[in-house]
Write a structure and sequence with these properties.
The chain is α/β, with parallel strands linked by helices. The protein folds into 2 domains: about 1-145 and about 380-530, 3-Layer(bba) Sandwich (FAD/NAD(P)-binding domain), CATH 3.50.50; about 155-375, no CATH class. The protein has helices at about 15-25, 45, 65-70, 80-95, 185-195, 220-230, 230-240, 260-270, 290-305, 310-315, 330-335, 380-385, 395-400, 435-455, 465-480, 510-520; strands spanning about 1-10, 30-35, 100-105, 110-115, 120-125, 130-135, 160, 175-180, 200-205, 210-215, 325-330, 340-345, 355, 360, 365, 370-375, 390, 420, 460, 525-530. The strands form 5 sheets. Strands 1, 2, 3, 4, 5, 6, 17 and 18 form an 8-stranded mixed beta sheet that branches. A hairpin with a 2-residue loop joins strand 13 and strand 14 (about 360). The longest helix is centred in the last third of the chain and has 21 residues, at about 435-455. The radius of gyration is 23 Å and the shape is globular. The two termini are about 30 Å apart. Bound molecules: 3-acetylpyridine adenine dinucleotide. 3-acetylpyridine adenine dinucleotide binds near residues 55, 142, 148, 184 and 430. 3-acetylpyridine adenine dinucleotide (N01) binds near residues 346 and 489.
């Protein structure tokens, strides 16, 4: 039996879902959020591993929909920890009375478009059914865990944790022999902290990653006061930058300066810490020759920091910088100088299998009490294809995307009317500051629903041609960058059988202009039905 009818069903209660329910509720729409987790926060709820923190400045990685909220909330550090982010999200939910609209521990399992009624039927994990006019997918770009397919992993009888499904009760590593598989952002954040506790830590590295120091610090009162005195302007200025982030602006190519000046510029950003390293010059992401200079700089740093030259060599990536997401760390490379830390190159010496209490590589057996899996996510599309979503021609998104994800503006998909994605494939998403990008999408979706209602349209659907042209544009932009030049979750190569495609739109300002133009033209590229 079908239960209640909603105006909007939002899937996911992370930054995106919370922002969406706040906006849509305020607009007078009967809105519900279904969230699989036991609390709000989305990826920030699940990724509780030691050292989990955001590598975007906290005063930027936060909502701007309420001036009061951004004035009142006090971020304590430059890079907020996972618990602080959760406190912020819980505070937001309570402050704006959103909890009554959020159902936790509830997974959306199926969505079916009912053409005759112009509505979606929503099935949830309790077996209940709902009808809704619109669906907003706030399922996140990095939320479906990628589990490694290593023989025998299920037979490991010690403690085993995936970084993105970390238990509520903090695991104890003291006097334990611990192994960790994966050296992306999650691994790089937790390795230094686990190394401090564990008796012995073995890091299983398949591909080394570049990492720059965070240089996290407590926020000074003066800094906070300054930003808060011009918060709106600060946000507007950030939207005008390529990544939507307040990174140092630089108009100079790495090739137009002397070697000494180049090293100085890299060193300045290295000392400052964080992702600003990428804008040390204006072409690190676009010109391979410039990128090679950035690579050499970081490789030299690794050589200087890591005392054992063989270990240092293993830690040196040979991919372009930022082609895999640049990591930001606290004492990552330094950790490999500790006597209880061992680095194992599993590309050279692969893991053959895992058994009850050990990891076996050829003739070597590592006895472990605890195994940590830091192998990342089925990014960009995983959370969407994980749900059975059947559009108007009876086909699912999962089937449609077998040949690669395709969406219009990263917001809508042809064949799926009244279905909106927040930071979907084809939008800046992971190549931008996620929170402002989320809010830009929420505003767009809210305005769109307002328009449809005012003009008595019952549905909106992306045109296939517009969608194709859009994805061509996204690819054309990425082809001018270094991003397609290595294997990464950006491309989906970390997931076996996944069609390789780069689906993030690089460039926040042109993207915002394009979204605005679509609206100004009366939603060009969309079919509107009465
Ligand atoms: O995942 P990853 P992540 N056997 O995919 C290895 C965001 N994030 O969770 O490169 C052995 O980057 C894999 O090796 P390879 C951020 O955007 C942000 O660390 O595929 N190894 C790689 O080393 C980030 O980029 C924050 O060869 C296997 C690692 O596992 C994104 O989330 C913090 C393997 C996975 O790295 C994902 O980061 C954390 C296998 N079968 C995350 N499969 C901050 O804000 C995979 N690997 C700071």
């Amino acid at each position: 039996m079908t239960n209640k009818i909603f105006d909007v069903v939002v899937v996911g209660a992370g930054f995106a879902g919370i922002s969406a329910v706040h906006k849509l509720k305020k607009q007078g729409l009967k809105t519900i959020v279904f969230e699989a987790g036991g609390g709000v926060g989305g990826t920030w709820y699940f990724n509780k591993y030691p050292g989990a923190r955001c590598d975007t400045h906290s005063m930027e990685y936060s909502y701007q929909f309420s001036e009061e909220l951004q004035q009142d909330w006090e971020w304590s550090e430059k890079y907020a920890t996972q618990p602080e982010i959760l406190r912020y999200l819980d505070h937001t939910v309570d402050r704006f009375n959103l909890r009554e609209n959020i159902r936790l521990n509830t997974r959306v399992e199926k969505l079916i478009w009912k053409q005759d009624d112009s509505q979606w039927e929503v099935s949830i994990s309790t077996g209940e059914l709902f009808l809704t006019d619109y669906v907003v997918m706030a399922t996140g770009c990095l939320s479906k865990p990628n589990l490694p397919n290593i023989r025998g992993i299920d037979t490991f009888s010690g403690e085993i944790y995936h970084t993105s499904r970390w238990p509520e009760k903090k695991p104890d590593f003291a006097s334990k022999n611990v192994g960790i598989i994966g050296t992306g952002s999650s691994g790089i954040q937790c390795i230094p902290l686990i190394a401090k506790e564990a008796n012995h830590l073995i890091v299983y590295q398949r591909t080394p990653n570049y990492s720059v120091p965070a240089r996290n610090e407590v926020l000074s009162e003066d800094f906070v006061k300054d930003i808060k005195s011009r918060y709106q302007l600060f946000r507007e200025d950030n939207y005008k930058q390529g990544f939507g982030l307040n990174l140092p602006l630089n108009d100079i190519s790495a090739l137009d300066v002397s070697e000494e000046e180049r090293t100085e510029a890299f060193e300045r950003q290295w000392q400052k810490g964080g992702l600003g390293f990428l804008t040390s010059f204006n072409d690190i992401l676009f010109n391979m020759e410039s990128n090679v200079h950035a690579q050499n700089f970081i490789r030299n740093k690794i050589k200087t920091i890591v005392k054992n030259p063989l270990v240092a060599k293993k830690l040196m990536p040979n991919t372009p910088v930022a082609c895999k997401r640049l990591c930001v760390d606290t004492d990552y490379y330094e950790t490999f100088n500790l006597p209880n830390v061992e680095l194992v190159d599993i590309k050279m010496n692969p893991i053959d299998f895992i058994k009850s209490k050990s990891v076996v590589l050829g003739n070597t057996e590592h006895k472990l009490d605890t195994l940590i899996i830091a192998t990342g996510f089925d990014a960009m599309t995983g959370a969407l294809t994980n749900i059975e979503i059947i559009g108007k021609d009876g086909e699912s998104i999962k089937d449609k995307w077998k040949t690669g994800p395709s969406a219009y503006l990263g917001i809508a998909i042809s064949g799926f009317p009244n279905f909106f994605m927040i930071t979907g494939p084809g939008s800046p998403s992971v190549l931008s500051n996620m929170v402002p990008s989320i809010e830009q999408h929420v505003n767009w979706i809210s305005d769109c629903i307002k328009f449809l209602k005012n003009k008595n349209f019952v549905s909106i659907e992306a045109e296939l041609n517009a969608q194709h042209s859009w994805m061509e544009k996204v690819n054309k932009i990425s082809d001018q960058t270094i991003y397609p030049h290595c294997q990464s979750w950006y491309l989906g190569t970390n997931i076996k059988g996944k069609k390789q495609a780069f689906t993030a739109y690089l460039g926040v300002p042109p993207y915002i202009d394009e979204c605005r133009e679509v609206v100004d033209s009366g939603y060009k590229g969309f079919y509107l039905s009465k």
